């Protein structure tokens, strides 16, 4: 009979200083067995009163707490009741039956719950799969817990700190020679590429140089060849299965010769293809001794400061801490830094293998890499969507409590304790979530493909393949969602006063938690509005970037990467094509994010003061500037036509004048001034209006154009005027094939290249757009459910109103005004929040952005209002149109 | 059952219950013990001993009437059972028997 204890109204005592702490009392009640509870409570109370008199309330309360904790003994603690659990397990079938009946009886509510949860869980599944894939990077390495990468921190007086994944060859050598306590250490170097020649076949091949310890540190299995010696001798080559097949077909490759230009390499090993989830990927490895043999006389190769393309990995013996090694590395760095000039400091650090795929952002990093912030954001978005669906579940469950209250009442009277009712409703929500998981699993399979197709980088990064571990996580996620969704409804139902609901259902307050429910709706709609507005703003900014006036024209310009071929030869072929209007040559393509730096010195002719700084540079021929329609502030294009190495002229932008204060920043007067670049005195012949050399995320910085008519220029820019682009492209390809028979042409339109540069923004906009679509769907479903429910509950009221002469429109207004008010509140919360977020945090990071437009805020509100009005209106109309007699005749 | 042998503290508590007659409840026992032995007796220890004595069948307990003191909680009163009395007597006899066989015991000599 103890369940009825709960229905006895508790004596309300005024909260004052003379009461023992409530929480401690509850704790005592919870753990103490009933036989001794009352006596113990009384005793403690007596002591409390004594202490209160002698020492004051604070001390008395403190002692009360201590005593409650001290009485937690074997003889006071309640025996855990297993019978309850046993009964619960027996009851599960009954709960499931009730659940199933409820599911079928309330088809609409079941649909809303399951559909909403399924959609949101599928997003969760995607994030879980993504994170799990990233976390299992490099798991195939046997020594994964002991492998560290040596990374460099580069600081100099006039530049910001740079964190590099790469380090110098010297660092690797010095560590090997001077530091003990390392099991193995290997040096790798990137940048080997050439055309592999086997017989008469040519195949372009990228490879990585690696020394003989490579296979000791990493566990990339060799199918053929000896891992200990495969990379020892100079000019040894280890191919992967795939590249061996490409080069040799089905012929045995081991021991064969592969020629690169004039140098012959011997195939000493065949490695298994590298799996996708590895941050080191290679098609071929070349022994590090080969690069050492060819750069014997290159001082810079062994320089401490040559930290740009070498990677050092090491393993520590089992069960050793990296602290000591780190200290040794710091000591070594300090020692070696003494030889560096210009205040440059290079500090070596250790990075555990497991922190490479998910970890800090390093320059020169190899392999894919995602920073934890991105994962947190993804997880956060998924969480928001899942919570939104959980809100629906809570809302609808509690709203429907009127129907189920009697069931709960009877269960309680028959003998179900608090825990069982709680368990019943938790079971229901968990089963709803598991049911949703089935649907969301299929949704996931569909979404996965969409997600991977979103950006080529993504499909390169992860495969999102199913595994048992992943499925286990999916089920855990669904159970977690069920618990979150069901907790509050379960608590609500298990607290129902049994006698009251059974005796008089009318007294049961359906609208008791109405404010919480309203708040939940406001939260859902605020989130939806924020997402929609974000999508709109993001999309416009992205479009703005693509159509941004860079300061020069990019339309109809085709950039052809020369891949080592002669630009002049190609141009000679190209000018034959009628659609080609003009051609030019350049070292690099601006505005795509890649940069070339040069040190520029300027000696002020008036006071002789010297200034030198890093400046961005491009080498172009004299057709380049007119072809791209760069605008001159003063002066004109290059005049002289010097031979290679005899350049004398330079064209700079306005920022350069500003930075070096050349001729008081007056473009006209700056003409004729001299600057020193690469130890060459160059005369400024033109000043360009500022344009974007870097991407739009960066401010415009000083830029210099230098003249170069080098026939080996890296890029050829072609201005095309054609109505038949495919035909023109075909003839350009023909021209290319005449000069290079091995490599396929690499030609891209400038505008496409720009689009690719900002592809990450496009991915973001698409992602957030998708999330906002889901958010608004789920919020609408929830709202719909609430409207249906309200209309049902107020059916009689509507009937009476109608009988008394209310008009249809009046009734619709009556039913909708509350909800529309909620949407209004949501808009008032969401829009200023979005505005501030973008105005203060996001847009300042994009230096050249469009201002936010009014419509970006009005459209979401209108769209959401329209959708909600349709949902509410349709139900309100239905309720208002029913025959009042029908509703009033029931009972 | 550990038998009817009494520990020193158990014996003291039993004696206290007997001495307090109809007013023997935990806090009172605690106070009485402190008064007579001169050492501070913790409630927790008294509770533990009381539950042990009850387990051994040496004391009985019943809940008293509710009063407005003690936050409205009833007191649990203890009384010594027959077995308890027997155990007390047995302990007393054992001591006296020992005392009796000590030859010429006086305080001066022991120091």
Give keywords.
heterodimer; A: 891 residues; alpha+beta; 4 domains; 6-stranded mixed barrel; 29 helices; disordered N terminus; B: 111 residues; mainly alpha; two-stranded antiparallel sheet; Tscrpt_reg_PadR_N (chain B)
Helix/strand layout:
The complex is a heterodimer of chains A (891) and B (111).
Chain A: H1 22-31, H2 34-55, H3 57-70, H4 82-105, H5 107-135, E1 147-156, E2 159-164, H6 169-178, E3 184-198, E4 201-210, H7 214-217, E5 222-224, E6 236-240, H8 241-248, E7 257-260, E8 263-271, E9 284-287, H9 288-294, E10 310-315, H10 323-337, E11 345-352, H11 354-357, H12 372-399, H13 401-414, H14 418-454, H15 456-461, H16 468-494, H17 498-503, H18 514-546, E12 557-561, H19 567-574, E13 580-586, E14 597-603, E15 610-620, H20 624-627, E16 632-635, E17 649-653, H21 654-660, H22 667-670, E18 674-677, E19 680-688, E20 703-707, E21 715-720, H23 725-739, E22 747-749, H24 750-757, H25 759-793, H26 795-803, H27 808-842, H28 855-881, H29 884-889
Parallel strand pairs in A: 4-9, 6-8, 15-20, 17-19
Antiparallel strand pairs in A: 1-2, 1-10, 1-11, 3-4, 3-7, 3-10, 5-8, 6-9, 7-8, 12-21, 12-22, 13-21, 14-15, 14-18, 16-19, 17-20, 18-19
Helix pairs in contact in A: 1-3, 2-3, 4-14, 5-12, 5-14, 5-16, 5-25, 12-16, 12-18, 12-25, 14-16, 18-25, 18-27, 18-28, 19-23, 25-26, 25-28, 27-28
Chain B: H1 8-20, H2 26-37, H3 43-56, E1 59-63, E2 76-80, H4 82-101, H5 107-110
Antiparallel strand pairs in B: 1-2
Helix pairs in contact in B: 1-2, 1-3, 2-3
Describe the structure.
The complex is a heterodimer of chains A (891) and B (111). Chain A has 891 residues and is of the alpha+beta class. Chain A is built from 29 helices and 22 strands. With 111 residues, chain B is mainly α. Chain B has helices spanning 8-20, 26-37, 43-56, 82-101, 107-110, and strands at residues 59-63, 76-80. The termini of chain B are far apart. Chains A and B meet through helix 2 of A and helix 3 of B.
């Amino acid at each position: 009979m103890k369940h009825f204890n709960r229905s006895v109204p508790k004596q309300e005592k005024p909260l004052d200083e003379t009461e023992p702490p409530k929480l401690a009392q509850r704790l005592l009640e919870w753990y103490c067995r009933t036989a001794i509870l009352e006596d113990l409570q009384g005793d403690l109370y007596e002591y409390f009163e004594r202490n209160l008199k002698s020492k004051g309330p604070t001390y008395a309360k403190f002692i009360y707490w201590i005593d409650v904790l001290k009485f937690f003994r074997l003889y006071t603690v309640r025996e855990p009741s297993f019978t309850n659990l046993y009964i619960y397990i027996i009851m599960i079938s009954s709960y499931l039956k009730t659940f199933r009946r409820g599911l079928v009886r309330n088809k609409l509510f079941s649909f809303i719950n399951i559909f909403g949860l399924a959609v949101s869980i599928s997003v969760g599944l995607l994030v879980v799969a993504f994170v799990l894939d990233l976390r299992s990077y490099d798991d195939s390495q046997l020594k994964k817990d002991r492998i560290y990468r040596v990374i460099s921190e580069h600081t100099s007086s006039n530049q910001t700190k740079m964190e590099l994944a790469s380090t110098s060859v010297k660092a690797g050598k010095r560590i090997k020679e001077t530091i003990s306590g390392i099991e193995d250490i290997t040096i790798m170097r990137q940048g080997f590429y050439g055309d592999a020649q086997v017989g008469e076949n040519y195949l372009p091949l990228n490879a990585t140089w690696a020394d003989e310890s490579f296979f000791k540190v990493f566990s990339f299995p060799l199918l053929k060849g000896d891992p200990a010696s495969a990379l020892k001798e100079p000019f040894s080559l280890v191919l992967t299965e795939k590249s061996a097949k490409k080069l040799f077909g089905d012929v045995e490759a081991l021991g064969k010769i592969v020629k690169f230009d004039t140098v012959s390499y011997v195939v000493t090993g065949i490695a298994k293809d590298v799996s996708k989830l590895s941050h080191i990927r290679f098609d071929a490895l070349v022994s590090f001794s080969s690069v050492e043999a060819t750069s014997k006389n290159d001082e810079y190769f062994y320089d401490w400061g040559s930290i740009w393309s070498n990677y050092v990995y090491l393993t520590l013996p089992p069960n050793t801490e990296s602290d000591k090694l780190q200290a040794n590395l710091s000591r070594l760095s300090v020692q070696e830094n003494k030889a560096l000039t210009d205040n440059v400091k290079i500090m070596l650090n250790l990075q555990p293998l497991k922190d490479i795929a998910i970890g800090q952002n390093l320059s020169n990093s190899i392999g894919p890499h995602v920073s934890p912030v991105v994962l947190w954001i993804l997880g956060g978005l998924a969480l928001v969507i899942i919570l939104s669906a959980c809100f629906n579940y809570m809302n609808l469950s509690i709203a429907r409590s009127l129907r189920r209250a009697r069931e709960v009442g009877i269960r309680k009277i028959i003998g179900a304790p608090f825990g069982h009712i709680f368990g019943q409703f938790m079971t229901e929500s968990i089963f709803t979530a598991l049911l949703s998981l089935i649907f969301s699993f299929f949704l996931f399979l569909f979404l996965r493909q969409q997600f991977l197709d979103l950006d080529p980088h993504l499909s390169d990064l992860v495969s999102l393949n199913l595994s048992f571990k992943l499925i286990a996580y999916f089920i855990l996620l669904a159970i977690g969602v069920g618990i979150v969704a069901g907790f509050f409804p379960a608590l609500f139902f298990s607290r129902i006063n049994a006698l009251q609901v059974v005796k008089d259902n009318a007294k049961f307050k359906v609208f008791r938690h109405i404010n919480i429910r309203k708040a939940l709706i406001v939260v859902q709609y605020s989130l939806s509005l924020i997402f929609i507005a974000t999508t709109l703003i993001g999309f416009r900014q992205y479009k703005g970037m693509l159509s941004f006036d860079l300061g020069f024209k990019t339309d109809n310009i085709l950039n052809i990467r020369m891949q080592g071929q002669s630009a002049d030869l190609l141009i000679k072929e190209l000018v034959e094509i009628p659609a080609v209007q003009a051609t030019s040559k350049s070292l690099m393509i601006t505005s795509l994010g890649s940069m070339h730096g040069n040190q520029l010195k300027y000696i002020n002719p008036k006071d002789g003061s010297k200034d030198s700084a890093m400046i961005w540079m491009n080498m172009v021929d004299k057709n380049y500037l007119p072809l791209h329609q760069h605008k001159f502030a003063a002066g004109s294009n290059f005049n002289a036509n010097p031979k290679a190495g005899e350049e004398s002229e330079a064209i700079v932008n306005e920022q350069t004048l500003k930075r070096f204060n050349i001729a008081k920043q007056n473009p006209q007067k700056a003409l004729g001034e001299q600057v020193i670049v690469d130890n060459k005195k160059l005369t400024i012949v033109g000043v360009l209006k500022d344009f974007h050399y870097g991407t739009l995320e960066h401010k415009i910085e000083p830029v210099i154009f230098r003249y170069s008519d080098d026939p080996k220029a890296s890029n050829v820019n072609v201005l095309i005027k054609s109505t038949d682009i495919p035909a023109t492209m075909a003839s350009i390809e023909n021209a290319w094939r005449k000069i290079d028979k091995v490599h396929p042409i690499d030609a891209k339109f400038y505008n496409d290249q720009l689009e690719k540069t900002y592809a990450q923004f496009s991915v973001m906009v698409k992602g957030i757009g998708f999330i906002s679509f889901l958010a608004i769907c789920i919020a609408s479903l929830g709202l719909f459910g609430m409207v249906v429910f309200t209309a049902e509950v107020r059916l009689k009221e509507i009937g009476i109103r109608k009988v008394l002469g209310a008009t249809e429109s009046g009734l619709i207004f009556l039913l909708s005004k509350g909800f529309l008010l909620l949407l209004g509140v949501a808009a008032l919360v969401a829009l200023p929040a979005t505005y501030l977020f973008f105005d203060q945090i996001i847009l300042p990071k994009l230096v050249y952005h469009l201002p936010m437009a009014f419509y970006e805020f009005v459209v979401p509100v209108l769209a959401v209002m329209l959708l909600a009005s349709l949902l509410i209106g349709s139900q309100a109309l239905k309720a208002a149109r029913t025959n009042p007699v029908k509703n009033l005749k029931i009972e | 059952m550990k038998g009817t042998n009494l520990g020193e503290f158990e014996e003291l508590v039993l004696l206290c219950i007997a001495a307090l007659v109809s007013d023997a409840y935990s806090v009172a026992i605690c106070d009485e013990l402190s008064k007579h032995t001169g050492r501070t007796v913790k409630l927790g220890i008294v509770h533990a001993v009381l539950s042990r004595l009850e387990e051994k069948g040496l004391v009985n307990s019943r809940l008293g009437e509710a009063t407005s003191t003690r936050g409205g909680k009833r007191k649990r009163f203890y009384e010594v059972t027959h077995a308890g009395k027997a155990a007390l007597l047995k302990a007393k006899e054992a001591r006296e028997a020992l005392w009796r066989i000590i030859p010429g015991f006086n305080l001066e000599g022991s120091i």
